[in-house]
Amino acid sequence: MPKESVAAAYGEGPLYIRRTGVWNMQELYESIAEFFHLRKYKFHERVYKHKRPSPFGVERQYIWEAERKETEYVQFHYAIYMHTYDARDIEVVDQQGDKRIFTKGRIWVELQADLATDWEKQFGGTSFLRELKNFFEKYVIKNNIVMGWETKLKYELYELHALIKNKLQMESDEFEHRHIGGIWRRY
Amino acid sequence: MSSFRLIVDHLKLDYSGTFDFKGLIRVINAWAFEKDMEKNENKANEIETPDGRQIEYENQVTKRLSDYTIFCLKMRILGKNLKKVELVKDKRKMKVDRGRILFFLDGFLQTDSESKWEDRPLLIFLRTMFDKFIYKLYTDRFERQLTRDCYELFHLVERFLNMQSLPKAPSHSPGH
For the segment B14-41, what is each residue's pLDDT rounded down to a tens digit? Predict the structure, then answer.
C-alpha cells in the first residue's frame, strides 16, 4: 500500500512578480542562492531551460527548489519559478565608469512556500495512523504550526520576495518585518 | 469557503503630480504594522515603457479579530507613466516620482474563517441567522471598525499626497 503523501496543508503564496526593463541577472541569481545557503537550505536547480532565441531575444526558464528539515516532523519547502522573455545582454556603464553586463527584457517570477509535515512518513501506514496524525496536528501541535513554523515560513518568504524586488530595482523593495525577531517570533 | 462580505466598496483615489512612490508604500506598510495587521502582497508588476514606469501592486492586509472573524483590506495601487525627477527640499536634493497614481481600496469582513459552518445547507442558514440576529451587536461593531480602518488608511494616503480630503468616515457602516 503506498504511503501517504507529505503534500503540504500549510503554506504561503503563490506570490507573483513581473518586471519589464533592465536588471542584473547574475546578481539576482547569486543573491537567491545565497539567501538559501545562509539559512542552511538545500538548494536545487531542477530545470534550466534555454529556448531557441527569437528575433526579440532569449527565453529562459528556471525552476528552483529549496528545502530544510526544520524538525523531525516539519520540513520547509520553497518552489521558485522564473521565466525570462525577450532577454538580451546589454552593456551598462556605472557612475564609476565600469562596464557591466545587464539583462534587458521581461521577467516573471512565482514564489511558493509550503510546510510539509511528517516528512519521514511515519504516520502513513494505516488509517489509524492517519487519523492519529490528523489529531496530532489538529490539537497537539496546532499552535506551534500556526503561530510558529507557518509564521516563520511566511516571514522568510516575504524576505525573499523583497530581496527579489530589490534586485530587480522595483519601487516597493522593502519588507517591514525584516529586522523583527526575538519575542515576535516563536521559532 | 468562508463568508466574505463587502463592507467598504471601492474607495478610489486618483492623483497626478509629484510624489514619492516608495514613501507611499512605506507609509501603508507602517500603518498596517502599527495596526497589527498582516500584509500579503499578491501581485507586483512593473513595466518600463518610453512614457515612464507602469506599476501595479495588489496588496491585502488582514487582521484576525477572533477565531470567527477576520478583517480584510484589499488595495490596488496603479502607477501610470512614472518618471523620476529631482527636487530640492530643505537645500537637499531628492529623487521623487512624477506621474499618475490610482489607489483602490475595498474592505471585506470574513466570517466563519475556519469554514466550520458550511458543510450542510442547514449550517449555512444557521450561520446567516447567527450573524444577522444573534451576533448582530458584534457584527455591527466589526463592520464599523472595518469602515473606520478603511477610511483611516484612505485619509492617510490622501494626506501623504497632499490632497483635499473626503468627509470623515461615516459613524455607521455603509448599507445600514
Answer: 999 998 888 898 899 889 888 888 888 8
Instruction: Locate the chain B residue with the closest alpha carbon to A154.
Output: B40
Angle (nearest 5°) at CA B173 between B168 and B176: 130
pLDDT less than 50: residues of chain A: 1-8
d(CA A52, CA A57): 9
Among candidates A68, A63, A4, which has minimal Cα distance to A38? A68
What are the cell numbers at B9?
Answer: 466598496
| Whole-number Å distance between alpha carbons of B144 and B138 | 10
The cell numbers describing B11, all together, are 474607495
Distance between CA B123 and CA B130 in Å, rounded?
A: 10
Residue B46 is nearest to which of A161, A170, A174, comparing CB atoms? A170
Which residue of A15, A19, A22 is in closest CB contact with B41? Answer: A15
Q: What is the ipTM of this complex?
A: 0.70
- In chain B, residues with a C-beta closer than 8 Å to the C-beta of A110 are none
B48: closest CA of chain A, how far (Å): 5
Residue B37 to chain A, least CA–CA distance (Å): 12
B13: left (phi over 0), alpha (psi -120 to 50) or beta: beta
Residue A145 · residue A8 · CB < 8 Å: no
CA of B141, closest CA in chain A: separation in Å? 27
Distance, in Å, from the CA atom of A45 to the CA atom of A71, rounded to the nearest integer, reads: 24
- The answer to whether A74 and A115 are in contact (CB under 8 A) is yes
Residues ≥6 apart with Cβ < 8 Å to A76:
A41, A67, A68, A70, A113, A114, A115, A116, A149, A153, A156
For B105, the grid coordinates are 481600496
